[in-house]
Design brief:
By secondary structure, this protein is of the alpha/beta class. The chain contains eight helices and 15 strands.
Amino acid sequence: MPDLAILSLTLSHFRSHHRTEIEVDARPVAIHGPNGAGKTNILEAISLLSPGRGLRRAASEDLIRRPEALGWKIAATLRSGPQIHEIDTRAEPGSPRQLRIDGKTAPQTALGRIARILWLVPSMDRLWIEGAEGRRRFLDRMTLSFEPAHAEASLAYDRAMRERNRLLKDGVTDPHWYAALEAQMAENGTKIRAHRATALARIAGAQEDAETVFPAADLTLEEPEAAEDLAQALARSRPADLRAGRSLVGPHRADLRGIYRAKGVDAAQCSTGEQKALLISLILANSRALAEETGLAPILLLDEVAAHLDPNRRAALYDEICALGGQAWLTGTEKGLYDALGDRAQYLELTDTDGASTLRAL
């Protein structure tokens, strides 16, 4: 299988990194070091090589290294099959994030067409028991990995909805003000629904007969008005929306539900360990589906995932990652967490030196 891999990564004034340069190959990259050394910051930088605000959803200002408060920069060389891409994303204080791909200015949505990047971070451990917004975001990340156009549809839907919500808050009742905005919401909302349904079908297919020690999850999307024409549903909902001051129907109100298949138990009712295992299973299923569809396994970012697994499941996870053939970036506090990887991986040690992250290749 051709490689999708980061070959070099340079961070400049990014979070705890004054200047960090990394050169690696397509094998898994195992990073270890004490808490606070800047391991997750490396994964966050990589996540910004995909559309959106990265794995922490941070504003550009929050990514600036302190106390210098200079602009930050991430530069990467990415191999995608036979092609090599140079990616440069940066932001100056008070300015929006900029992106250049192969020396040309590009929108963030363009990143979804050259690299698929998936991640699992500790903040996602409560996915099944917290609000629906996080689950929608998780679903939309999976959906975007299959369909890059999902980003454009989501952005267009959100823009139209914000304008509609402004009218609702202002108490505007004239239907002519709403017609064009609701048409835009309906057009793009229908695309969002279709993209999500396709993604769920692909995840389900990737879980069938998969050789994995991680439990399968049956996913369903709950949206009461999903079977209804969205333009009609929005028009019907105007009186209630005016009272609420916001749009109450549409794909932005959907919720993702997961069932632990072998037990028939809702994911929200599972133990913490089972919930984590279900998340790992879904990330792996997403990866298998992408590898089958595109011929390239995605880049995986797995933050502190090994510490919560027993040795057997940890070894099984590493085996599955290596079987996928893609590049994975893993973090942990101890190098011993990666013993089962052996020479299948490359190792980096990260420490904190006078408030700056210091990297050493092993």
